[in-house]
Amino acid sequence: MSLFMNEQVDLNVITEETTMVEITTKYPGARRALFSRYHIGGCSSCAYRDGETLAEVCGRNEIELKEVIEHIVNSHLEDKKMLIEPLAAKKLLDEGAEVRFIDTRTREEHEAVAIPDSYFMTQELQQEIFGKWDRSEKLTIIIYDHTGKSAIDTCAWFRGHEMKNTFALVGGIDSWSQLVDSSISRYRLEM
């Protein structure tokens, strides 16, 4: 079963003029990929601005543009293996699969609105999961946030701790409320 539907990756989507915000929106794992390979974007000394172009970032860091584009796209293809669409997650539930949702948003967000029966992510819960939860294919863990931008990082962390049947919910709880359960209120965070 495909857990992530209908996306084709086009290598020409990213050009030297593509802004960093466009890249991180289209490829949610790009920030993690850039930091892990090139040490770009993880701290204030290596940060980039949203409006900065990829060519500017590559020039400042003295790395080859084509190599960076290939790395972002290849990382995205790997990330896709960790993503699950809301309707695919609903199908697992409908088929009676053992699914546990983990909410990585703030406590206030979780208490205000959450996917029913989901767990709020705490340090204690993480220790319980890594120490006691089933690591086999019988249990599917689905991690979600508000809009799907950061859950993949937590998913990668879980998979790195041998929780191989862990996925990040595409679009987060916002997509879940639109596509699966309209009784879950949508909201917008004000900064």
Concise synopsis of the structure shown:
The chain is of the alpha/beta class and 191 residues long. The chain is built from nine helices and five strands, in the order ααααβαβαβαβαβα.
Q: Can you walk through the features of this model?
A:
The chain is an alpha/beta fold. Residues 1-7 have low confidence and may be disordered. It has two domains: 11-80, SP0561-like; 83-179, Rhodanese-like domain (Oxidized Rhodanese, domain 1), CATH 3.40.250.10. Strand 2, helix 6 (107-112) and strand 3 (119-120) form a beta-alpha-beta unit. The chain has nine helices and five strands.
Distance between the termini: 38 Å
Strand numbers in spatial order across the main sheet? 1-5-4-2-3
Mean pLDDT: 90
How many structural domains are formed by the residues? 2
Give the helix proportion (percent range).
40-55%
Helices and strands, in N-to-C order? HHHHEHEHEHEHEH
Helices and strands: which structural class? alpha/beta
The tally of beta strands, per DSSP, is 5
Secondary-structure map:
Layout: H1 20-26, H2 30-38, H3 54-61, H4 65-80, E1 83-84, H5 86-94, E2 98-103, H6 107-112, E3 119-120, H7 123-132, E4 139-144, H8 151-160, E5 166-169, H9 172-179
Parallel strand pairs: 1-5, 2-3, 2-4, 4-5
